[in-house]
Amino acid sequence: MKNGELLERPFARALMGALARETANVANAENIELPFDDPVAAVEQVAHKTGANNSSMLQDVLRGAPTEIDAICGAVAGAAEKRKIGAPANW
Q1: Alpha-carbon span 47 to 31, nearest angstrom
Q2: How wide is the angle at C-alpha 63 spanned by C-alphas 62 and 68, nearest 5°?
Q3: What angle in degrees, to the nearest 10, is found between the helix axes of 10-29 and 69-83?
Q4: What is residue 58's three-state secondary structure?
């Protein structure tokens, strides 16, 4: 699925939003200042601007290569666990 299709599919869009909110919450707990106020709007803007692209993770799947899912979501989940905050979409 192209990045832009994520915005057209309700489940994908909702999951993308949940991941963005959780990541922003963890960043805030870690005192990491993000360059935007609304994480959902930011991630949707990226999906829109790169609408015709396949994500690097999808490219990995299509090539049969390992993805960066553990590095990305694992880092968020680990920091959330350390801070005792919820991040269920990242597990």
Answers
A1: 26
A2: 85
A3: 50
A4: helix
Q: Which residue has the tokens 């935007």?
A: 36
Are residues 28 and 85 in contact, defined by beta-carbon separation less than 8 angstroms? no
**Which two structure tokens, joined as six digits, stand for 39?**
């994480």
pTM score of the predicted model: 0.92
What does DSSP assign to residue 76? H
Cβ within 8 Å of residue 4, ≥6 positions away: 47, 48, 50, 51, 52
- Average pLDDT (17-33) is 98
The token duo for 69 is 């899912």
Question: What domains sit in the chain, N to C, each tagged with a CATH number?
Answer: 5-90 (1.10.1040.10)
